Amino acid sequence: MYSEPRIESSVTAGKRKMYQPLRSLLIVLVLTGLLWWALKKAPLEEIGGTLKQLTIAQIGILLAINVAVIILITARWWLIARAGKRNIPFLPLVWYRLSVFGLSYFTPGPQVGGEPLQVIYLQQNHGFTYVHATSTVIMDKLIEFLANFILLAIGLWAVFRTNLLSIIENPSAAWLPGLCILLVWPVLHISLLYRNILPVSRVLNALPFIHQKSKAVRMITLSEKLAAAFCQRHPRILLGTIGVSILSLAGITAEYFLMSAFLGIRLNVIEIIAALTLLQLAFLVPLPGGLGALEASQVFALGAFGQPAAAAISLTLLQRARDILNGGLGLLI
Q1: What are the pLDDT digits (tens) for 210-253?
Q2: Where are any strands of DSSP class E within 172-244?
Q3: In whole angstroms, what is the distance from residue 73 CA to residue 95 CA?
């Protein structure tokens, strides 16, 4: 059982209230410095030159798709969060997701790390308990992984189909087990939760070097129990969130296709999916925004499809412009 938290003394509460403005100022200074550093490193002049190649209508179309993708990604989390019949507004969650993206994009790591912000926002602004807020983030990420892994499996098939990895002898056979794992793991995890089986908790309980009664383990177990309860009680919402995720991935693919077309890059559907897959894999490199890896992936992929390096760089600069816009707004928020 969990003990009730002790009531703070008036002295402790007063100290926390006194230090809160200083803490807020420190956070603002750190995030401002982070944004300045990121913009200093970004090739803003080259981005401006790339944007000049586009018409106002083309930029408007790309911005509209970007907004639609952000709304769809937020809708998945919103559906999960309001499943407990909480009257949680949608628009604030959009700002929260932008904040999460900004923190993840501009800091080292594989495009994750901002998720604790989602927990904090729900806990402080919408009355969620810490465990309940964490469970919504777990479900959100699990369903995101489900959709992303399906896209990645299709993308790796496209990579093999276009012979991008021709240096590997018989690549289909070499990567087939990996493809199967990518496809099966998220589906299996959700299926286990639906059957009230908690895979992460069971693994933690089986490890002898893990302290079973630690706060972290208890929090993970409770969060996974709430995630399992969500799967059992709200199967329609679960299917809806999966559908929303697939729509968001379709929007990302359409955006990549239109970016390429607007810049005069002619690729077929399989080549688009293969190049987009390498782009997504580049973000796994532990550098802010996949710096360098993103450009290299597109120069390699588009070069294999007969496109000049200048076209690939222009495409990555356009993507950088979008990500800096989203991430910059997120940090400001």
Answers
A1: 776 777 777 778 777 877 888 888 888 888 998 999 899 899 99
A2: none
A3: 12
